């Protein structure tokens, strides 16, 4: 069995796989666990403050409880707390390999960081490109799943979320994951189309509360666009000439204007009625909401998650009111 390498967010897994290891996204271990609160509590017992983001505590707990010995920590371009998290993990004896998305998104900067990353894993560009080519088939199937959601109204918003978010590490085994994805695609393609009353987009980090998707569909709305999850799947990778271009085209780690350009394109193409912007308590990305609401011209609701993996009553009430408003607005147009 291949040694598992924990990752704190999407990184160039092609290099890790080329080196003979199996990437495992600590976020996915944490949020899909039946005991995600246990991961948070493990971190708090080890000294993490109550005011720290639940995701950071969850990553720590997932790493320690599951016996992960080596991780890749993204110290720039993702979470501002990850650098400190990696220092604590080093203190606990975890081997940490840092990775940074450059602050200034340029082909040269991305190439320099990727070359450094590949060197750390002892792999060359040729072997990494071979892995990248081998993953294109799975990435194409993720695009098909996305189209079955927004174009054909057959896949649910949760299915769209789940399979695209899993593309960050291919559930540690691309071959097995591709088989699971094939089965799901067959199941979805056999369904009758079910056009939702409202077409929503979900932007921001993947949610702590996965019941958000079920709740929206109970109200006649469907998330037909999951921004960051879709970026994890690299839907434009087929157009990239090499791995440098692929990771320079990944919107989430770079400036907000670059993200907004793709979000606006998808709003138009998918004919979205409104956006749900999810932010995590104690995360610096909550400030993005100010910019996003000033640059997007369709209704947006911001919901904030903390430790709970279920929607609370207040958030349900706010979402209901938001969806009612969208229905009235759509009927009036």
Automatic annotation (TrEMBL):
Cofactor names: [4Fe-4S] cluster
InterPro entries on file: FldB/FldC_alpha/beta
Keyword Iron-sulfur: yes
Keyword Iron-sulfur set for record: yes
Coiled coil: none
Keywords: Iron, Iron-sulfur, Metal-binding
GO MF, one annotated term: iron-sulfur cluster binding
Pfam hit, one: HGD-D
Similarity section: Belongs to the FldB/FldC dehydratase alpha/beta subunit family.
Name used for this protein in its record: 2-hydroxyglutaryl-CoA dehydratase, D-component
Species the sequence originates in: Peptoclostridium acidaminophilum DSM 3953
């Amino acid at each position: 069995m291949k040694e598992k390498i924990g990752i704190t967010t999407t990184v160039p897994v092609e290099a890790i796989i080329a080196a003979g290891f199996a990437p495992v996204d600590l976020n996915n271990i944490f949020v899909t666990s039946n005991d995600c609160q246990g991961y948070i509590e493990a971190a708090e017992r080890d000294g993490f403050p109550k005011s720290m983001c639940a995701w950071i505590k969850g990553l720590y707990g997932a790493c320690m409880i599951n016996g992960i010995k080596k991780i890749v920590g993204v110290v720039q371009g993702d979470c501002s707390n990850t650098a400190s998290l990696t220092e604590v993990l080093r203190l606990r004896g975890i081997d940490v390999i840092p990775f940074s998305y450059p602050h200034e998104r340029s082909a040269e900067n991305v190439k320099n960081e990727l070359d450094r990353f590949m060197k750390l894993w002892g792999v060359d560009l040729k072997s990494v490109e071979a892995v990248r080519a081998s993953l294109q088939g799975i990435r194409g199937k993720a695009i098909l799943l996305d189209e079955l959601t927004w174009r054909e109204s057959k896949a649910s918003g949760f299915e769209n979320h789940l399979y695209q978010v899993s593309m960050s590490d291919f559930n540690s085994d691309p071959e097995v994951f591709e088989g699971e994805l094939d089965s799901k695609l067959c199941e979805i393609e056999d369904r009758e189309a079910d056009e939702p009353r409202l077409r929503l987009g979900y932007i921001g980090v993947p949610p702590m509360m996965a019941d958000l998707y079920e709740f929206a569909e109970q109200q006649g709305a469907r998330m037909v666009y999951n921004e960051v999850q879709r970026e994890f799947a690299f839907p434009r990778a087929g157009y990239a000439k090499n791995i440098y271009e692929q990771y320079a085209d990944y919107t989430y780690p770079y400036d907000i204007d670059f993200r907004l350009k793709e979000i606006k394109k998808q709003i138009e193409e998918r004919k979205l009625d409104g956006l749900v912007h999810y932010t995590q308590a104690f995360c610096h990305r909550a400030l993005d909401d100010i910019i996003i609401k000033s640059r997007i011209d369709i209704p947006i609701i911001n919901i904030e998650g903390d430790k709970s993996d279920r929607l609370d009553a207040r958030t349900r009430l706010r979402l209901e009111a938001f969806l009612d408003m969208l229905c009235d607005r759509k009927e009036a147009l």
